[in-house]
Amino acid sequence: MGNEAHDFLPDDPQPGPSWDNPRWPLVGGESEDELTQALDPTAMTLAVKAAAAKAGKAMDEKAVEQAAGDSIRAMMLVRTYRVRGHLAAELDPLGLSHRELPADLTPEYHGFTGSALERPLYVGGTLGLEWTTMAELVRILRKNYCGHVGFEYMHIADVEERRFIQDRIEGPDKVITFTPEGKRAILSAVIRGEQYEKFLGKKYVGTKRFGLDGGESMIPALEAVIKYGGQMGVREIIYGMAHRGRLNVLANVMAKPYRVIFHEFSGGSANPEDVGGSGDVKYHLGTSTDREFDGITVHMSLVPNPSHLEAVDPVVLGKTRAQQAVRGDLDEHQQVLPVLIHGDAAFAGQGIVWECLGFSGVRGYNTGGCIHFVINNQIGFTTSPQFARSSPYPSDVAKGIQAPILHVNGDDPEAVTFACKLAIEYRQLFRRDIVIDMWCYRRFGHNEGDEPSFTQPLMYAAIRQHPKVSALYDARLQKEGVVKPGDADAMCNEFVEHLETEFAGAADYKPNEADWFGGRWAGLNRPLDPEEARRNVDTAIQGKLFDSLGRTLTTVPEGLTVHKTLERVLEAKRTMFASGEGFDWATAEALAFGSLVTEGYGVRLSGQDSGRGTFSQRHAVWIDQKDEHKYIPLTQLPHGKFEVYDSPLSEYGVLGFEYGFAMADPKSLVLWEAQFGDFANGAQIIIDQFIAAGEAKWLRANGLVMLLPHGYEGQGPEHSSARLERFLQLCANDNMQVCNITVPANYFHVLRRQMLRPFRKPLIIMTPKSLLRHPMAKSAVGEFTGQSHFRRIVSDTAEIADAKIRRLVLCSGKVAYDLIARRDEAGLDDVSVVRVEQLYPFPGEALTVRLQRMTGLQEVVWCQEEPKNNGAWFFVESHIEAALGRAGKNGMRPVYAGREAAASPATGFAKRHEEQQRALVAQALGLPSEVPTQTAAKKPA
């Protein structure tokens, strides 16, 4: 009874009513207009008269008036159940959550007592009834709304969405019913979930596994998503989840072989030994597989994640969006489904959850709806809900996007499975997010080594006495005659026997290949050569393409009225292309994008102001000044696809989304641009856990580009530094590239290099601000065409003979132009300024060659704008010293020139900034300090 047993899932609920009953007449609560009509005494009186006549009921005027009043109050009761019935639902398996029946859910609150409960009551088709009694109405409402599933959906504005849910849950015949085969399949899945955890606990005593014990109903429920999703057009599911239940999902939902997991529990690697990487703990790992139900194959992948519980959410959504683009599914959103599995405390407490919910209806980020499954343990580590949130449910945040929420008792696996079936049907029809909040418990605390009774003694006293899900369900099915005594034990024994076989096979298991270069990644590889050996790649373009792109970028189509300032910008570009000189940063970028699109690559750029550019430099989108229709020149190019999106104001979520997109599509240049470089601080978790370490931990290559405006122009501490030092501190094991580029053509080449090399590494670029329009930061046509290429170091613009150079000033970024200007002004003809455009991997070989030619060199200075404890100094110092040694200049060490160490990245005073800048430039060049001395304070007389 191994993974092959997963293919048995409940059929559509039978016998009993179809879930697709024709809609009956609707009265009250479905829309505000209908509610108003239902509560109008005159309209209701006429409706009662007509219904009575049709039914052959003789009623005088007084009886009609009373019946109309009864009907109005009954409609209010129905609406109250729709809105608040979940408050009386039986959700807590432990029975510790005391939920009193709200008064407004009682007939007495609405004026029905005594004999009035049995009086004929006209409800006009509501709940599938024409005439009923209040007693029967309350019984049906309580069964529909106050059982093991609590529904929150009346906050949804769309009438059709509300009706969809009502059609499937309201009425006397609406019960959760599965075939006997389906019930046995659910029992089997629950048993697999339980016995798998028990087996791990026995074989690996005291080892953390973050087991699903207490929440096993999730296993058949997730299989329902695969089965019913496949029937409704889903061909791929991308999962994201944290620790709890992850190993169970890997094995019992995603069919990762048990022996592989046992091999990892024994300390083995999931990948061949020669692959390398640091690896990660087993409950962070992902996998991919195919599952088949009813002849329909669904591909599934679980994205690896760090211990930051919800950090994987935007990555899953970004990967989903990319896969939808690859499959041509961006319009319908039917084929690729994201499923996010959350903990209750994390769903309520982590801001990234809201950031991701906010993507659900946003152009460029919408994935056609995500199924959110909350494993509601009713506790977060050791924190009880009342101390963890201010709202009744952990799922309340989802009301902000009008997502329906299904609260369900985890001790009822049929109810949980039904909730997932309803969820996938809703998602496929309306393409919107939906939340399942499964109330359960943690049988063994936060992890298997934890003692939960320290902090929740009453809860864990109840848990110790509480039967397992399988025992409760087995007893229920025996009572229904679906299974016989001993059937569940036979299922257990068969499955455990299979686990023993797999456990024995784990000893000899050896992974034979890593899975990171399959599918769309085919043809790419992991670079085996060092940086020096792989640096050259043909990134120049032909002159014919260059000229063609120039026409695309400067031609205003007929009927488009552009802004007068943009027209001046376009005229300046026309001059550039006509003269072949003066190409600025934005034009170089557009040439890189356009050339890649023409060559068949995709380009996706997102950020808070990416269409126009934070500094009004890009103008990738032209907006008509009369009617605001948009024109994007680069979308007119053939072969590839260009996308640019002004993103939500979310660094954490959007950067994670773009990382996920790049993870799935290595054939698109995916760029995220910060409004200012320091805004990346808000996305530090994605940078630390995914961008810097994802390849080492999980063997997941990624070519994401981060554009971070950086440079000291007196704009204060928050708009000066992109925290270059943080990225350099994260650099090791050839994990990413970090550049601080000053030449437009060099930016062009590094972007093209990113796609044209046969591997992918994240690329971090400190992009300029003042250099966007600096007269010295220009390139000529020859730097884009012919034999041109990316230059990791850029030598001086002055023609100084190598042998004459006495002082070498090394730097990176904007300060180079300040140094060159001041050097030339001072007439220093023995000082050379060399820019390190790529800081990691550090171009040590190229720098060594450059140093060897400087036979008269006496001093080497590293100059930077950033404070000494920021910037690149502590990173480059040892690399420069090593290059000096290789160049035969033993004993020579670089000297620092720059701002003093500081707690704040920059001063907020423009005058002080200018003084500091003049001083560090003078220091680097060996000139006298230009900072005026402070006048000494006079002693008091």
Automatic annotation (TrEMBL):
Known cofactor(s): thiamine diphosphate
Entry annotated with the keyword Transferase: no
EC number: 1.2.4.2
Protein origin, superkingdom: Bacteria
Keyword tags: Oxidoreductase, Thiamine pyrophosphate
Region spans: Disordered: 1-29
Pfam families: E1_dh, OxoGdeHyase_C, Transket_pyr
Domain called Transketolase-like pyrimidine-binding: residue spans: 583-774
Subunit structure comment from the entry: Homodimer. Part of the 2-oxoglutarate dehydrogenase (OGDH) complex composed of E1 (2-oxoglutarate dehydrogenase), E2 (dihydrolipoamide succinyltransferase) and E3 (dihydrolipoamide dehydrogenase); the complex contains multiple copies of the three enzymatic components (E1, E2 and E3).
Its biological purpose: E1 component of the 2-oxoglutarate dehydrogenase (OGDH) complex which catalyzes the decarboxylation of 2-oxoglutarate, the first step in the conversion of 2-oxoglutarate to succinyl-CoA and CO(2).
Record-given protein name: 2-oxoglutarate dehydrogenase E1 component
